[in-house]
């Protein structure tokens, strides 16, 4: 069992040995690989600068921990995807990170928005996103969420169960609306980084199984409800994908289902959504493809499969989230303590504790994720030392960067920057140990402004009745 999968959480010290990639130090500890760091990241007298704003200024104004978003990087990536998928639909996957300002900016860049809860939908609507360019996902959408989507004329709802088909149809009928929908199909393909497996991956909570016939059953169920307009099929095969091989197999199977639908029901569906999951570089060894190459390959796959099946080519949709926001954001931390630990065999590791941790980045603890970290506030002539960046939480698995090299003179008060933290860090953040969540600060051309404020302790404890009303006991009782 991997350390990240252990029910008690990851183990520590020698139980997590240095990885092979970390055994040799980089030639320059201050280097900023353009594969990993945001577009405008640079050094000025040793200090890390993002969007022409220096680390010292950011820390003085906004404190630490803090997420820093490079707006120029964000817009460049969004426009690259929009341009590469010309003639297709690009829906930003809001689960990666979403706030009102971000939704507004991406909408202005021409992207639609993929949401999966009432909260995310509310943000999209408040930001002024065209409801027709919003897609609602989820395996257990509540009646209230479905009602909210229908009332606001959301452009597409991705259906995930037979119960949901009837619930949505009843809501649409009551509203006098014919609701466009897609069927989420589980195609038996699992993709991750450079690998994919094309069988035996239908044991999951999402979608209708293709191999068992449930997908066709769901299609027939929708066609029997005139309140629903079946627009197409949806497939999602994994995350952090670096090539298109898995998409090729998924497209083959989805288009095969389109051909079966035409044969059985004399109907050609106009849309195919291949989901998201496109990867980014967390370290310099990662090698993601560029949007233009991804788009060309996916469109070629679909065209070829449709030609073989004798189908018209449906409109393609994709849902990048991490690929757009992930590399555009970094996290700044302040170092609190530094400890040198001697392990078995005399190997030493420097534990560098920072003022955040698993409450603002749970991915290392959950997925054994790897990150790149640098000293951000100054130059250092110190030699490299093996290090582990850890958080301040009461968990041995509270690790931010498992294996890295930092200058030997790292000390309390230094600022560390961790790259590629835009996806799933803030959105999965918690108040573990009652820590307030960090702010998100957007920077561009020398201007820095909060787009998500730092939480205060009062805000964290606002639902605690004893805190908000000191000395007053709750009076509301629930009868058994």
Intertermini distance: 42 Å
How much strand content do the residues show? 25-35%
Mean pLDDT: 91
CATH architecture of the largest domain: Alpha-Beta Barrel
The CATH fourth-level homologous superfamily of the largest domain: Alanine racemase
**Count of separate DSSP helical elements:** 13
Indicate the structural class. alpha/beta
Biggest pleated-sheet summary? 9 strands, mixed
Low-confidence stretches: 1-16, 196-200
How do you describe this structure in short?
The chain is α/β, with parallel strands linked by helices and 480 residues long. It has helices at 55-62, 71-84, 100-108, 118-126, 143-151, 162-175, 214-223, 245-265, 291-309, 322-325, 363-367, 457-460, 465-468, and strands at 42-44, 47-50, 53-54, 66-70, 89-93, 112-115, 134-136, 156-159, 179-186, 190-193, 195-197, 208-209, 228-234, 238-241, 271-273, 315-318, 329-342, 348-354, 373-375, 384-390, 399-407, 415-418, 440-444, 447-452.
Which descriptors apply to this entry?
single chain, 480 residues, alpha/beta, Lyase, Ornithine Decarboxylase, Chain A, domain 1, TIM Barrel, 2 domains, nine-stranded mixed sheet, eight-stranded parallel beta barrel, 13 helices, 25% strand, globular
Outline the structure in words.
With 480 residues, the chain is an alpha/beta fold. It folds into two domains: 183 residues, Lyase, Ornithine Decarboxylase, Chain A, domain 1; 255 residues, Alanine racemase (TIM Barrel), CATH 3.20.20. The protein has 13 helices and 24 strands. The strands form four sheets. Strands 4, 17, 18, 19, 20, 21, 22, 23 and 24 form a nine-stranded mixed β-sheet that branches. An eight-stranded parallel beta barrel has the order 5-6-7-8-9-13-15-16, surrounded by five helices. Strand 8, helix 6 and strand 9 form a beta-alpha-beta unit. The chain is globular and about 70 Å long. It starts with 41 loop residues before the first strand and ends in a 12-residue tail after the last helix. The N terminus is likely disordered.
């Amino acid at each position: 069992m991997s350390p990240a999968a252990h029910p008690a959480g990851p183990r520590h010290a020698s139980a997590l040995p240095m990885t092979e990639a970390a055994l040799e130090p980089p030639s320059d500890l201050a280097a900023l690989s353009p594969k990993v760091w945001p577009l405008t990241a640079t050094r000025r007298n040793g200090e890390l600068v993002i969007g022409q704003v220096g680390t010292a200024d950011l820390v003085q104004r906004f404190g630490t921990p803090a997420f820093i978003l490079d707006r120029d990087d964000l817009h460049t990536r969004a426009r690259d995807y929009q341009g590469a998928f010309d003639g297709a639909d690009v829906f930003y996957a809001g689960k990666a990170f979403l706030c009102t300002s971000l939704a507004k900016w991406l909408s202005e860049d021409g992207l639609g928005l993929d949401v999966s809860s009432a909260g995310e939908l509310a943000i999209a609507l408040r930001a002024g996103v065209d409801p027709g360019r919003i897609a609602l996902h989820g395996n257990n959408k509540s009646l209230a969420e479905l009602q909210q989507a229908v009332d606001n004329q959301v452009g597409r709802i991705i259906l995930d169960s037979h119960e949901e088909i009837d619930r949505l149809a009843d809501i649409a009928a009551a509203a006098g609306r014919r609701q466009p929908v897609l069927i989420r199909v589980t195609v038996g393909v699992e993709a991750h980084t450079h690998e994919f497996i094309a069988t035996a991956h239908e044991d999951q909570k999402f979608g209708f199984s293709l191999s068992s016939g449930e997908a066709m059953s769901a299609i027939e169920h929708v066609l029997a409800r005139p309140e629903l307009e079946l627009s197409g099929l949806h497939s999602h095969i994994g995350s952090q994908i670096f090539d298109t091989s898995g998409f090729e197999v998924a497209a083959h199977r989805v288009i095969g289902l389109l051909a079966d639908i035409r044969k059985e029901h004399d109907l050609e569906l106009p849309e195919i959504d291949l989901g998201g999951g496109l990867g980014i570089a967390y370290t310099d060894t990662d090698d993601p493809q560029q949007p233009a190459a991804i788009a060309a390959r996916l469109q070629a796959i679909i065209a070829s499969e449709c030609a073989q099946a004798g189908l018209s080519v449906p409109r393609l949709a994709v849902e990048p989230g991490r690929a757009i926001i992930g590399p555009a954001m970094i996290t700044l931390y302040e170092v609190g303590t530094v400890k040198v630990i001697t392990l078995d065999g005399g190997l030493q590791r420097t534990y560098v504790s920072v003022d955040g941790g698993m409450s603002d980045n749970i991915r290392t603890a959950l997925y054994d994720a790897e990150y790149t970290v640098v000293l951000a506030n100054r130059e250092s002539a110190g030699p490299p030392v093996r290090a582990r960046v850890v958080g301040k939480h009461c968990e041995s698995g509270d690790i931010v960067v498992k294996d890295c090299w930092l200058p030997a003179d790292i000390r309390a008060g230094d600022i560390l920057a961790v790259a590629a933290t835009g996806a799933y860090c803030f959105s999965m953040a918690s108040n573990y140990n009652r820590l307030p969540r960090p702010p998100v600060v957007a920077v561009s051309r020398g201007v820095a402004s909060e787009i998500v404020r730092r939480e205060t302790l009062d805000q964290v404890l606002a639902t605690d009745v004893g805190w908000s009303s000191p000395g007053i006991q709750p009076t509301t009782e629930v009868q058994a």
